[in-house]
Design a protein that fits this description.
Layout: H1 5-28, H2 33-51, H3 59-75, H4 80-108, H5 113-118, H6 120-126, H7 128-155
Helix pairs in contact: 1-2, 1-4, 1-6, 1-7, 2-3, 3-4, 4-7
Length: 156
Amino acid sequence: MKLTFIQWLIQGIPECIALVLLGFVLLESRMDIKRALIPGVIEALVVYFVRLFPLPFGIHTMVAIISLSVLLLCFTEGRYSKALLISFFVFLVLGLSELAILPAVSHLIKMPLEVIFEQPLLFALVTLPQVFVLFVLAFFVDHFYNKRKKRTEKLL
């Protein structure tokens, strides 16, 4: 599915920043939104340009997973195998949140998903809750990693 420019601005960029941030937190156990901005925008650009091509279903997701893992590797000190695994996990979380949130929002606004998908601006706005969920999840993972890290330091 092609992204319109407005979808890319409203949904694509924040979603990719959230994906990168969650990846950073899982890979390094620290959250830094400023550090996630540049790789997030790069990921959004990759996704935008890949979606311009008429590729079979799922190919753009595979490219996005690989590009996310490369970006995580370039902006952190992790290993590629771990970055790739975390990229798969982050996209799994994204897919599950879409699976749960889109039908719920569709039901709340009393509009079928087919109608929402046909209107790019509405679709971009409806997907914002899942972006919020990704940011909140990154915050909670960071919080629990830091809590565990402090507890471990006290024991030493």
